[in-house]
């Protein structure tokens, strides 16, 4: 537990939402250290590390490079700033790609076991999507049974991870011109795992010493993530658990209800959270909760697990990355169940000050101080029920004598898969991106931005950067697609409801949103679901009228509060897919001049996309808008066209 000598910093500087502010103050009163406190204690952080100029890849180091051009200019092995920073960037890309892809592999294994009938708690829910994926993987459909098709799809999906040669099959979903760019540069991923392993080899001492060559391999690795591992995760999850459809729900710490047994699921893999959803609705367990004096069971999510169960079940989101400790500080969280990625090691320490039990469930992610109750897919529901029961039994152990406050929530609409976007725009029977393309061409929608990624105490107050950037974009008629913690930030600010169009969007975007009945900011899911953004971009290209490559589209990407290595992999596959991508907070190569210059400029000539760094969210939004406008100009759609009403004679003349 923390000491009482906390610096008295204004809570406004830590979060923009009042539920979080209240819990930050409560944590302070309860003498609990949370991420912002630990961030302050870390100051000043290592400047070499921040600039990407520190290497400890061998025991002749650690080596630092002087960022001002004085000595030392080289590591002991002779590596210069660009090589050191590129290797570091490469390893971040590999770690991020590995996290997404290991998730994807787990889903593929469970999918295959489900298809074979080896596990009983999962089943195939979306057969249409199975057929679509089967066709993309070259699996014959004919008059074969769903089981036969699913087994072959599962085997092919799983094989993509360990594939050694050729091309990862789903890369064919990219526009043809994009594939040509990749083939010409030798960037087609040969196998999801292969590129990750090769990145670790290349960045070992004394291997790849050419920063551009390392960045090429970053692209190969990241493409294997976005168009491979992440895409497999999203596709197979949709087939197993259902493709999301628009769903109304709520967001923020008020998802925890004082009268209920509260369970938080936190992490990433829906294999676990889907079963917790089922267990929390089990009548026997609901009755058990009532017998302990609770009104019922409330389930809420944190981070991407939250997005997964929101998208498919409308379960309220309790919070994003920096709210994980705050959920425990409410004092009404009976159990926090975690699996993998983005989990603070501090959770059991924070939980000690309350009554919360923290359960780790994944063999890849044990947490010292947590209760480890390992989850296996072959008895998934049974373990999920055990976890829910543990939470219920913990309900009478709440510590405060005072009544607990019901914190606030905000309404949101989630569940916008790339399929539902085309249904909503084109109608169920003629699902199509045509109306989106037409509205981009006629200028009502200026462009499309993917705003994604994490939270970071460096970028405090929490959510401020996401919300300011997204408001600025929609104000200028840019339709925003979101995933991950960024979507949760904007949901808390009330941007994920159709009414936000009238209040915050520019006139063109507002008109389209009001006509179709969609919010100006569409929630597409979790971090692996950034693959939905890639598929949507490819579908827009295919629909026609906006060039023949993603690099031609008036689109941009951003992660204003990023923190994880996964964000670097996502950013690199956006860039390698031809997207201009702006990060805020810090950028891990800033001390390496030639490398940074290449990532921010030169790389565009090679692969069509490029990186940018800007921490001011309004300025960053305008960089994106400028880029969108430059693409509109190149497409010749920068001038608003007069709407011409044709009479019959004009129509005949056209014929
Ligand atoms: Fe230093 Fe080179 Fe070893 Fe890195 S690889 S620690 S720069 S000697
Ligand atoms: S959870 S990677 S903090 S978005 Fe996907 Fe949020 Fe970033 Fe984790």
By secondary-structure content and strand pairing, the structural class works out as alpha/beta
- The number of helices is 26
Record the strand order, biggest sheet.
6-5-4-7-8-9
Percent of residues in β-strands: 5-15%
Unreliable spans:
1-8
Overview of this structure, please?
The relative contact order is 0.12. A six-stranded parallel beta sheet has the order 6-5-4-7-8-9. It folds into three domains: 85-241, Substrate Binding Domain Of Dnak, Chain:A, Domain 2; 253-397, Rossmann fold, CATH 3.40.50.2030; 429-635, Rossmann fold (3-Layer(aba) Sandwich), CATH 3.40.50.2030. It starts with 17 loop residues before the first helix and ends with a helix. It is globular and about 75 Å long. It has 26 helices and 16 strands. Helix 12 (303-313) links the parallel strand 5 and strand 6. By secondary structure, it is of the alpha/beta class. Helix content is 48%, strand content 10%. The longest helix has 35 residues, at 81-115. The model is unreliable at 1-8 (pLDDT under 50). The structure holds iron/sulfur cluster and Broken Fe4S4 cluster. Residues 268, 303-304, 321, 341-342, 453-454, 484-485, 526-527, 564, 566 line the site of Broken Fe4S4 cluster (MSK).
Write the topology of this structure.
Elements: H1 18-29, H2 35-41, H3 47-51, E1 54-55, E2 63-64, H4 81-115, H5 127-136, H6 146-162, H7 176-185, H8 192-202, H9 211-241, E3 247-251, E4 261-266, H10 270-280, H11 283-291, E5 297-302, H12 303-313, E6 317-319, H13 324-329, E7 335-338, H14 347-352, E8 357-360, E9 371-372, H15 380-394, E10 410-414, H16 418-426, H17 434-441, E11 447-451, H18 464-475, E12 478-482, H19 484-492, H20 499-504, H21 507-516, E13 521-523, H22 530-543, E14 555-559, H23 565-576, E15 580-583, H24 593-607, E16 610-613, H25 617-635, H26 648-654
Parallel strand pairs: 4-5, 4-7, 5-6, 7-8, 8-9, 11-12, 11-14, 12-13, 14-15, 15-16
Antiparallel strand pairs: 1-2, 3-10
Helix pairs in contact: 4-6, 4-8, 4-9, 4-23, 4-24, 5-6, 5-9, 8-9, 9-22, 9-23, 10-12, 10-15, 18-19, 18-25
The structure holds iron/sulfur cluster and Broken Fe4S4 cluster (MSK).
The site of Broken Fe4S4 cluster has 14 residues, from helix 12 and helix 19.
């Amino acid at each position: 537990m923390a000491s009482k000598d906390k610096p008295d910093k204004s809570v406004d500087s830590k979060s923009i939402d009042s539920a979080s502010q209240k819990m930050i103050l409560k944590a302070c009163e309860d003498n609990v250290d949370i991420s912002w406190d630990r961030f302050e204690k870390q100051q000043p952080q290592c400047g070499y590390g921040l600039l990407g100029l520190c290497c400890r890849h061998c025991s002749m180091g650690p080596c630092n490079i002087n960022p001002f051009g004085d000595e030392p200019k080289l590591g002991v092995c002779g590596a210069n700033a660009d090589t050191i920073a590129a290797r570091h960037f490469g390893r971040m890309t590999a770690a991020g790609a590995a996290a997404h892809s290991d998730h994807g592999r787990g889903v593929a294994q469970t999918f295959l076991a489900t298809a074979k009938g080896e596990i009983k708690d999962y089943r195939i829910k979306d057969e249409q999507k199975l057929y679509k994926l089967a066709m993309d993987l070259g699996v014959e459909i004919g008059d074969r049974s769903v089981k036969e098709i699913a087994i072959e799809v599962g085997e092919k999906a799983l094989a993509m991870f360990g594939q050694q040669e050729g091309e990862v099959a789903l890369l064919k979903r990219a526009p043809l011109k994009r594939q040509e760019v990749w083939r010409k540069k030798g960037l087609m991923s040969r196998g999801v795992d292969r590129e990750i392993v090769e990145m670790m080899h290349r960045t070992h001492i004394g291997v790849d010493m050419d920063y551009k060559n390392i960045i090429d391999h970053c692209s190969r690795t990241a493409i294997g993530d976005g168009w491979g591992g992440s895409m497999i995760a999203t596709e197979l999850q949709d087939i197993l658990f259902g493709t999301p459809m628009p769903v109304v729900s709520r967001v923020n710490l008020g998802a925890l209800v004082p009268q209920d047994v509260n369970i938080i699921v936190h992490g990433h893999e829906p294999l676990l959270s889907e079963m917790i959803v089922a267990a929390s609705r089990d009548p026997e367990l609901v009755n058990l909760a009532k017998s302990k004096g609770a009104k019922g069971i409330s389930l809420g999510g944190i981070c991407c697990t939250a997005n997964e169960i929101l998208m498919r079940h409308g379960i309220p989101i309790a919070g994003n990355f920096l709210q994980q400790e705050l959920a425990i500080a409410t004092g009404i969280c009976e159990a926090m169940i975690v699996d993998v990625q983005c989990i603070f090691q501090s959770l059991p320490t924070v939980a000690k000050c309350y009554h919360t039990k923290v359960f780790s469930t994944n063999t890849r992610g044990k947490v010292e101080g947590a209760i480890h109750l390992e989850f296996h897919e072959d008895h998934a529901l049974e373990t999920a029920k055990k976890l829910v029961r543990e939470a219920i039994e913990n309900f009478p152990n709440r510590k405060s004598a005072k009544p607990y406050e019901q914190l606030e929530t905000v309404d949101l609409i989630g569940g916008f898969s790339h399929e539902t976007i085309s249904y909503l725009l084109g109608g169920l029977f003629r699902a199509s991106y045509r109306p989106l393309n037409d509205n981009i061409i006629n200028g009502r929608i200026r462009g499309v931005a993917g705003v994604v990624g994490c939270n970071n105490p460096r970028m405090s107050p929490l959510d401020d950067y996401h919300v300011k950037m997204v408001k600025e974009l929609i104000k200028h008629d840019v339709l925003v697609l979101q995933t991950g913690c960024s979507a949760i930030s904007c949901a808390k600010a009330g941007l994920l409801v159709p009414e936000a169009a009238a209040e915050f969007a520019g006139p063109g975007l507002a008109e389209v949103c009001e006509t179709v009945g969609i919010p100006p900011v569409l929630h597409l899911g979790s971090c692996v679901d950034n693959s939905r953004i890639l598929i949507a971009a490819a579908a827009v290209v295919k629909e026609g009228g906006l060039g023949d490559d993603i690099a031609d589209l008036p689109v941009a990407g951003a992660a204003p509060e990023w923190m994880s290595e996964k964000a670097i992999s996502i950013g690199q596959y956006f860039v390698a897919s031809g997207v201009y991508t702006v990060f805020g907070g810090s950028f891990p190569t800033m001390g390496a001049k030639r490398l940074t210059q290449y990532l921010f400029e030169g790389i565009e000539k090679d692969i069509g996309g490029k990186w940018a760094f800007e921490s001011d969210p309004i300025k960053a939004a305008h960089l994106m808008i400028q880029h969108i406008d430059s693409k509109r100009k190149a497409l010749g759609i920068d001038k608003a066209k007069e709407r011409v009403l044709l009479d019959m004679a004009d129509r005949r003349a056209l014929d």
